[in-house]
C-alpha cells in the first residue's frame, strides 16, 4: 500500500496530517516512502507522530511549534489534545 | 460587481418596518441589526461607522435608512454622513410617519423607483486595483490550513500585485502565531500596532473564558483534528499569502493603504465579515472545513471548501473545492482557478450564499447594552 494518504507540510515537522481515516496497522504515506505504521486508528484530518516525542518536547507543524507533548508519544501514535498541550491563552 | 438597493435600520426598533419593506418590494436588500441605542459612546461610534459604511458601500446603488425617532443613531444622521458619495440616499422615521404599516407603505414607495433605476444601469469595466477583497475562515478543520487558506493566500498575492486591497481580520485567530505575524509586518509601526492588538485580544479572550480560554478552538475544530490554538492560528494565517501587512485598521474603517491590511475584529464570523464589508470590501473569500453557509446581504461571499467531502456533502453552500490540493492539484493551479472564479463573481456570477439568500449581518460591540 503506497498510495499517499497524508501530508507533511514542512521538512522540520514531526507529525503528518492524515487525509483519510487510517486503521490501526495501516501505513501512513506522504511524499517519501516508506511512511509509518499507525499504532492506533487516526481519524481523517488528525495528526500522527513521525518520530518519538518525549514529554515537553515541541510538536512541529508548518515548521512551527503547535504545542508540546504532555506524555511520551511513539512513532505512529495519534497526536491530539490527549497528548499535546497548547499555549495557555 | 453588485448594485443593490438597501433598506437599513438605524436602530433595532426599526427592524419590523425594514423587513416589511423587504417583503413588499422585490429586489431590495433589507439589512437589520440589534444596535442603534442603549450602548456606550465607543459602541455608538463603532455602529455608526459600520452603518455609514453600508450606505457608502460600492455594491450599493442607493438606500433608505429607517429610524424610529427617539433613538441615539438617527437615520437622518447616517444619510447626512454618507451624502458626499453622491448616490440616492433617503431616510424616514416611524414615529413621524405614523407607525409601522404607514412606514412600510411610504418606504416601499421610496425604494421602488430606486430598484427600477438600478436595474437600468449598464455594467462598466473597472481595473483590478479598484477591487477590495476580504478574507475569512469559519468552521475550520485541519485541512483549512493546508488547502483552502493557502489557496486564498495565492489570490491575495495576485490582487496585491495588481495594486488592489485585501483585508484579513479575526485577531483571535492570530493568537499563538505571533512570531509569524510579526515577520509579516511591513514596518515597525505596523508590527507594534499588530502586537498590541494581539495582546489585547488575548486578554479579552482570557477575561471572557478564564481557565477555559483554550476553548477558543470551537469543539468542532478539535473534532476536525486541530489540537491547539497555535495550530489553528498557523493554518488561519496561511490566508495572508506571501505579502506584507501594510496597515492595521479599526473595525469598519476603510483602509487607505493598498496591499494586505489587517482589521481589528473578533474571530466570530458574522461580526468579522460585517466589519470588513462596511469598510468597503466588495467580495469576501470564506474558507471552511466543517461547512459554514454564511453569506452577506451586500457582497458575494465565495465559499471555499477545505476538503472534497464537504464540497460534495453541502453542494448548495460551497463554491470551490480546495480539497483537490491533497489529491495532486498544485496550490498554484488551484489559486489560479480561484482567481478566475473571483473575476467571474466580480462580473456578476452569483455565489452560493447569494443563491440561497443566506444574508447575515451583525455589528460588533465592546460592552454590554445598558
Could you describe the 3D structure shown?
The complex is a heterodimer of chains A (89) and B (370). Chain A is mainly beta. Chain A has one domain (1-89): Archaeosine Trna-guanine Transglycosylase, Chain: A, domain 4 (Roll), CATH 2.30.130.110. Helix content of chain A is 0%, strand content 30%. Chain A contains no helices and nine strands. In chain A, strands 1-2-5-8 form a four-stranded antiparallel β-sheet, with no helix packed on it. A three-stranded antiparallel β-sheet of chain A has the order 6-7-9, with no helix packed on it. In chain A, a hairpin with a 7-residue loop joins strand 1 (6-7) and strand 2 (15-18). Chain A is globular, with a radius of gyration of 12 Å. Chain A starts with 5 loop residues before the first strand and ends with a strand. The model of chain A has no long low-confidence stretch (mean pLDDT 92). Chain B has two domains: 4-119, Rossmann fold; 128-356. In chain B, helix 2 (41-56) crosses helix 3 (75-82), helix 2 (41-56) crosses helix 11 and helix 6 (148-161) crosses helix 13 (331-346). Chain B is built from 14 helices and eleven strands. A seven-stranded parallel β-sheet of chain B has the order 7-8-6-5-9-10-11, with helices on both faces. A four-stranded parallel β-sheet of chain B has the order 2-1-3-4, sandwiched between helices. Chain B is an alpha/beta fold and 370 residues long. In chain B, strand 3 (60-67), helix 3 (75-82) and strand 4 (89-93) form a beta-alpha-beta unit. Chain B is globular and about 60 Å long.
Amino acid at each position: 500500500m503506497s498510495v499517499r494518504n497524508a501530508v507533511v507540510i514542512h521538512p522540520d515537522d514531526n507529525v503528518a496530517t492524515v487525509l483519510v481515516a487510517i486503521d490501526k496497522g495501516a501505513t501512513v504515506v506522504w511524499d517519501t516512502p516508506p511512511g509509518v505504521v499507525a499504532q492506533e486508528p487516526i481519524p481523517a484530518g488528525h495528526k500522527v507522530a513521525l518520530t518519538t516525542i518525549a514529554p515537553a518536547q515541541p510538536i512541529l507543524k508548518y515548521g512551527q511549534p503547535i504545542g508540546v507533548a504532555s506524555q511520551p508519544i511513539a512513532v505512529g501514535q495519534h497526536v491530539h489534545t490527549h497528548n499535546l498541550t497548547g499555549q495557555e491563552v | 460587481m453588485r448594485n443593490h438597493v438597501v433598506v437599513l435600520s438605524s436602530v433595532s426598533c426599526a427592524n419590523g418596518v425594514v423587513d416589511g419593506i423587504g417583503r413588499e418590494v422585490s429586489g431590495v436588500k433589507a439589512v437589520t441589526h440589534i444596535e442603534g441605542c442603549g450602548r456606550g459612546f465607543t459602541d455608538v461610534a463603532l455602529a455608526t461607522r459600520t452603518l455609514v459604511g453600508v450606505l457608502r458601500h460600492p455594491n450599493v446603488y442607493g438606500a433608505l435608512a429607517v429610524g424610529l425617532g427617539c433613538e441615539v443613531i438617527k437615520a437622518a444622521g447616517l444619510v447626512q454622513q454618507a451624502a458626499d458619495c453622491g448616490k440616492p440616499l433617503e431616510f424616514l422615521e416611524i414615529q413621524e410617519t405614523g407607525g409601522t404599516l404607514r412606514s412600510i407603505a411610504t418606504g416601499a414607495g421610496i425604494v421602488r423607483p430606486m430598484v427600477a433605476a438600478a436595474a437600468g444601469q449598464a455594467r462598466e469595466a473597472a481595473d483590478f486595483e479598484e477591487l477590495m477583497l476580504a478574507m475569512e475562515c469559519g468552521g475550520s478543520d485541519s485541512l483549512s490550513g493546508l488547502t483552502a487558506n493557502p489557496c486564498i493566500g495565492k489570490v491575495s498575492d495576485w490582487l496585491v500585485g495588481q495594486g488592489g486591497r485585501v483585508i484579513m481580520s479575526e485577531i483571535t485567530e492570530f493568537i499563538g502565531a505571533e512570531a509569524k505575524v510579526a515577520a509579516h509586518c511591513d514596518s515597525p509601526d505596523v508590527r507594534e500596532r499588530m502586537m498590541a492588538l494581539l495582546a489585547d485580544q488575548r486578554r479579552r479572550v482570557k477575561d471572557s473564558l478564564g481557565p477555559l480560554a483554550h476553548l477558543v478552538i470551537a469543539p468542532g475544530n478539535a473534532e476536525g483534528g486541530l489540537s491547539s490554538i497555535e495550530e489553528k492560528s498557523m493554518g488561519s494565517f496561511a490566508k495572508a499569502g506571501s505579502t506584507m501587512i501594510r496597515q492595521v485598521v479599526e473595525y469598519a474603517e476603510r483602509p487607505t493603504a493598498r496591499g494586505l491590511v489587517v482589521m481589528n475584529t473578533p474571530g466570530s464570523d458574522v461580526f468579522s465579515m460585517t466589519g470588513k464589508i462596511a469598510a468597503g470590501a466588495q467580495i469576501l473569500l470564506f474558507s471552511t472545513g466543517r461547512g459554514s453557509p454564511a453569506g452577506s446581504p451586500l457582497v458575494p461571499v465565495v465559499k471555499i471548501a477545505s476538503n472534497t467531502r464537504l464540497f460534495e456533502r453541502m453542494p448548495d453552500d460551497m463554491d470551490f473545492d480546495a480539497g483537490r490540493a491533497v489529491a495532486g492539484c498544485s496550490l498554484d493551479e488551484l489559486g489560479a482557478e480561484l482567481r478566475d472564479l473571483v473575476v467571474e463573481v466580480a462580473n456578476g456570477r452569483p455565489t452560493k450564499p447569494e443563491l440561497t439568500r443566506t444574508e447575515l449581518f451583525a455589528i460588533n460591540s465592546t460592552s454590554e447594552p445598558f
